[in-house]
Design goal:
This protein is of the alpha/beta class and about 450 residues long. The protein contains ten helices and 39 strands. It has two domains: about 5-225, Spore Coat Polysaccharide Biosynthesis Protein SpsA, Chain A (Alpha-Beta Complex); about 230-435, Hexapeptide repeat proteins (UDP N-Acetylglucosamine Acyltransferase, domain 1), CATH 2.160.10.10. The structure holds uridine-diphosphate-N-acetylglucosamine (UD1) and magnesium ion.
Length: about 450
């Protein structure tokens, strides 16, 4: 059967106290609305329509790569009105529409699939999701008929004293038969405590017309919505736990899952060990048998097998097999480090390639350079890549030995098998197999101290 989904994302989220629309706040590194869209797509719902309103342009920009369409809700007149604003999207369609909210990112693919299956197998006109909780304050209550079928949903603010006692709540996720929904939306009224058009009233209308409404229980945790920063962190903690457990089950050792922050799209190979304080973000891939000692941030990077990293930052880069990085290295975007290499303490690499087996062990800056394999950088080498106006390129061949405290003034080429004397400032090509010395020769003035009357 044809399936599509609506994601309600028009609200501003006043309680977030933010310039950003609520659904763009991130949970484990990803915008909440994008998490929900991903879950829909993984559940085989490919036609997704996002209902936007407050901050519409920002939401569109943030979801630009998600292959979704949009409906615009001008004024936030309630969840029923929000769904109504997707009329154009739904028009002429037959099948199931799922309705989810962009601020409840914990719903899982498995749950979405079982809600859809329940709805379609039961041939319901509408399926609602419910949970039973101790404190139902604020939620819509599920009111059932004597035969236990669903009669209606009553919002907290509209509840009678008896209805307030009901502990079964509306979890806020639904499936509808598209045509039934379209017809019923026209019948919604806003004569309630909040003066809103409630999507939940669709249930009572369908029921009174003798149509079948189903209800399926979902784990309460998966329905948690974010209305404030406190809830954002609570939902983040749950998501973090899930992600970390997923990786541990796949054979990754996480020494302290409470203090390890792994983004939703990160992949990690088995037998990798992760110490506390690591933050892995974006589309990072860490392959097998790596060791991440404490306190690194790795964003959008690929780290091959057997790499050891400690207290470093790696952004949009690639690190080859068995290389070691850090402590305190900074690998900036578009860098490619070879295998069996060493990027040591206080080394910064920017937009450069470093060949296999090359050692850059300490206190060195390499920017806009192509460095071959088997090189050794002495302590304190600086690639002088910027002349104040333009960045220039430096090329260093294989098996070169760059002495301590060398400046390589770009653009410059150092060919294979060369030596550069410590303290040199290299401005011209160093030809293959040569030694370059580019510093003043030492002058010794014997007895100078005494002559000046300075000796003690
Ligand atoms: C809603 C349900 C309630 C349920 C609860 C679960 C209704 C009337 N009530 O209440 O039964 O227990 O969710 O969390 O649906 N939105 C729009 N446009 C609007 C109004 C809302 O896009 O005009 C979006 C909001 O941004 C939010 C979602 O819809 O993401 C839910 O709206 P909200 O007003 O928070 O509904 P609740 O009062 O939580
Ligand atoms: Mg709400």
């Amino acid at each position: 059967m044809y399936k599509c989904a609506l994601i309600l994302a028009a609200g501003k989220g006043k309680r977030m106290k933010s310039d950003l629309p609520k659904v763009l706040h991130k949970v484990c590194g990803k915008e909440m609305v994008n998490i929900v869209i991903d879950t829909m797509k993984k559940s085989a719902i490919n036609d997704v329509n996002v209902i936007i309103g407050k901050g519409a342009e920002l939401v569109k920009d943030a979801t630009a790569n998600m292959e979704v369409s949009y409906s615009f809700q001008e004024e936030q007149l309630g969840t029923g009105d929000a769904v109504k604003s997707a009329k154009e999207f739904l028009k002429g369609k037959k099948g199931t529409v799922a309705v989810f909210t962009g601020d409840a990112p914990l719903i899982t693919e498995a749950s979405v699939k079982s809600i859809l299956e329940f709805h379609e197998n039961g041939a319901y006109e509408a399926t609602i999701t419910t949970s039973i909780i101790d404190d139902p304050t604020g939620y819509g209550r599920i009111i059932r008929n004597s035969d236990n079928s669903v009669k209606k949903i009553v919002e907290h603010k509209d509840c009678s004293e008896d209805e307030l006692k009901v502990k079964e709540i509306n979890a806020g996720m639904y499936c509808f038969n598209i045509e039934s929904l379209m017809e019923t939306l026209e019948k919604l009224k806003n004569d309630n405590a909040q003066g809103e058009y409630y999507l939940t009233d669709v249930v009572e209308i369908l029921e009174s017309e003798g149509k079948k409404v189903g209800a399926i229980c979902v784990p309460f945790e998966q329905t948690l919505g974010v209305n404030s920063r406190v809830q954002l962190s609570e939902v983040g903690q749950i998501m973090k736990k899930r992600i970390n457990e997923f990786h541990m089950e796949n054979g990754v050792t996480i020494i302290d899952p409470n203090n390890t922050y792994i983004g939703l799209d990160v992949q990690i190979g088995s037998d990798t060990i992760i110490y506390p304080g690591n933050v892995l973000e974006g589309n990072t891939v860490i392959k097998e048998n790596c060791t991440l000692y404490p306190n690194s941030r790795i964003d959008n990077s690929t780290v091959e097998k057997g790499v050891v990293i400690q207290s470093s930052v790696i952004l949009d880069s690639h690190v080859g097999e068995n290389t070691t990085v850090g402590p305190y290295a900074y690998i900036r975007p578009e860098s490619k480090i070879g295998s069996n290499a060493r990027i040591g303490d206080f080394v910064e690499i920017k937009k450069s390639t470093i060949g296999d087996n090359t050692k850059v062990s300490h206190l060195t800056y390499i920017g806009d350079a192509e460095v071959g394999s088997g090189c050794n950088f002495g302590c304190g080498t600086v690639v002088v890549n910027y002349d104040g106006k333009v960045k220039h390129k430096t090329i260093i061949g294989n098996n070169s030995f760059i002495g301590c405290n060398t400046n390589l003034v770009s653009p410059v080429t150092v060919e294979d098998n060369t030596y550069i004397a410590a303290g040199s400032t290299i401005t011209d090509k160093v030809p293959e197999g040569s030694l370059a010395i580019a510093r003043a020769r030492q002058v010794v003035k014997e007895g100078w101290n005494k002559k000046k009357g300075l000796s003690k």
